[in-house]
Amino acid sequence: MDLLEEYRRATFFFESGDPLGASKLLEPIVEAEPHNTAVRQLLARAYFNSAQLKRAETQLRALVEHDPSDHYAHHVLGRTLERDGRFREALPHLRLAAAMKQQPEYSEAVHRVEQWLGKSETA
């Protein structure tokens, strides 16, 4: 198997709106190259976009463990936990990403989860 060609195919699938197809192509690449963060990140995003949240979480936790300063991995992990309804677990990752890199998307996610948690605690 030509891993680079498979990665290119997976990227095409992902960008064409087929995250499930992309994940099927990426899984054996991650197995063959477990330390390739670009492949693992794309696999995590493919899982997230196809609502395979537990699988996305697993990949993202591996990325964060490998590089705790990866703001994007923290953000997507936070978004994955948020999407799974695990707001308290999501917030630290979202805050950390926002502190590491000033991006509107990061700040908006923090605000959204803080708002949700504030509303749930007063309900």
Automatic annotation (TrEMBL):
Superkingdom per UniProt: Bacteria
Pfam families documented for this protein: TPR_19
This protein's name: Tetratricopeptide repeat protein
